[in-house]
C-alpha cells in the first residue's frame, strides 16, 4: 500500500499467556437482519519484537430479540498485560449486553456496560495481585484498554446501531456507492482534528458523559468499528487505504472473514500497529419479528 514496510517473517510472541492471543483471528456470519464480519491481526511492530497481539474483537447474537452485540478493544501499549485487558474488556462487554437484553429488551444502557467492563478489569487485577484490592492506577498499569461496543437491532422503522466508546478507537459509516466514510467519533488525525493527539483515556476509566452515538444505516451502507491500527492509515478515507476497503466492503457480497483479515494485513510504511476491523451490513427488507 504505497511505500511498504520492511518484509520479514513474523516471530513467535513470548509471555505466559501469549498462546491465547494468536497472530490473526477472524469471524463472520449473517442473521435475517444483518451480515457481520470481523478480523484482528498482529502488527509488524509486535511481530518483530515478539509481542502478542494487543487488539481484540467479539460479537454475538441475542436470539430472543435478534439483536447483535459487538465489542472491539485496543490494549494500551504501556500496560504490562495489554492483550489480556483488551480480550477481557470485549468478553465482559458482550456478556453484559446479552444479560441486559435478556432482562429488558430495548435500548441497552451503554454506560452500564462500560462500567461493568471496567469492574471486570479490576477483578482481573485483583487475581493478578494475589487477592489484594488493587488501586485504580494498578489496574490501568496492568490492563488499560480502549473499547468500542454496541448493539445492532431492527424494527418496523428500520435498522439501528447504538455505539459507545472509551478511548481512541473509532467507528464510521461507509457509503458503499460513494466510497465515502463518515466518522462517528472525533478522530486523532482526520479533518475534524486540527492537532494530532496521542493521548488516550482508556478503561478502567469511564468518561462522564460516555461518548455514544445512534446511527440508522440503510442497505448500501456499512457500519465499521476499528482500532487506530486501521483508523490511522484510513485517515479521512480519501487515500489508497480507504479505496481498498470501500472496494472490497462494497462488493456484491461481503468479503469472507479470511479475506477481510488478508486486507487488514496490508503493508504501509510507518503503520505497524495491530489492526482490527468489525463491519456490519444491514440486509435489505429485513425487520425484526
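^ C-alpha cells above, recovered residues below v
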Amino acid at each position: 500500500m504505497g511505500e511498504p514496510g520492511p518484509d520479514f517473517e513474523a516471530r513467535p510472541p513470548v509471555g505466559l499467556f501469549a498462546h491465547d492471543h494468536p497472530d490473526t483471528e477472524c469471524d463472520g456470519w449473517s442473521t435475517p437482519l444483518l451480515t457481520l464480519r470481523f478480523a484482528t491481526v498482529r502488527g509488524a511492530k509486535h511481530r518483530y519484537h515478539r509481542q502478542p497481539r494487543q487488539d481484540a474483537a467479539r460479537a454475538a447474537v441475542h436470539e430472543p430479540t435478534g439483536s447483535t452485540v459487538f465489542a472491539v478493544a485496543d490494549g494500551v501499549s504501556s500496560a504490562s498485560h495489554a492483550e489480556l485487558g483488551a480480550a477481557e474488556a470485549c468478553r465482559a462487554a458482550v456478556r453484559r449486553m446479552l444479560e441486559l437484553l435478556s432482562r429488558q429488551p430495548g435500548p441497552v444502557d451503554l454506560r452500564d456496560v462500560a462500567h461493568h467492563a471496567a469492574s471486570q478489569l479490576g477483578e482481573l487485577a485483583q487475581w493478578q495481585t494475589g487477592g489484594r484490592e488493587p488501586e485504580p492506577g494498578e489496574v490501568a498499569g496492568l490492563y488499560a484498554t480502549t473499547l468500542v461496543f454496541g448493539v445492532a437491532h431492527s424494527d418496523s422503522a428500520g435498522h439501528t446501531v447504538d455505539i459507545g466508546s472509551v478511548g481512541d478507537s473509532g467507528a464510521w459509516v461507509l457509503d458503499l456507492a460513494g466510497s465515502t466514510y463518515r466518522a462517528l467519533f472525533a478522530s486523532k488525525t482526520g479533518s475534524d482534528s486540527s492537532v494530532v493527539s496521542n493521548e488516550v483515556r482508556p478503561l478502567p476509566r469511564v468518561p462522564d458523559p460516555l461518548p455514544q452515538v445512534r446511527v440508522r444505516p440503510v442497505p448500501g451502507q456499512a457500519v465499521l468499528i476499528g482500532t487506530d491500527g486501521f483508523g490511522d492509515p484510513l485517515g479521512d478515507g480519501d487515500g489508497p487505504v480507504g479505496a481498498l476497503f470501500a472496494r472490497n466492503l462494497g462488493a456484491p457480497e461481503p468479503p469472507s472473514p479470511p479475506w477481510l483479515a488478508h486486507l487488514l494485513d496490508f503493508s504501509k510504511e510507518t503503520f505497524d500497529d495491530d489492526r482490527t476491523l468489525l463491519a456490519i451490513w444491514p440486509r435489505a427488507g429485513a425487520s425484526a419479528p
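The chain has a mean pLDDT of 92.
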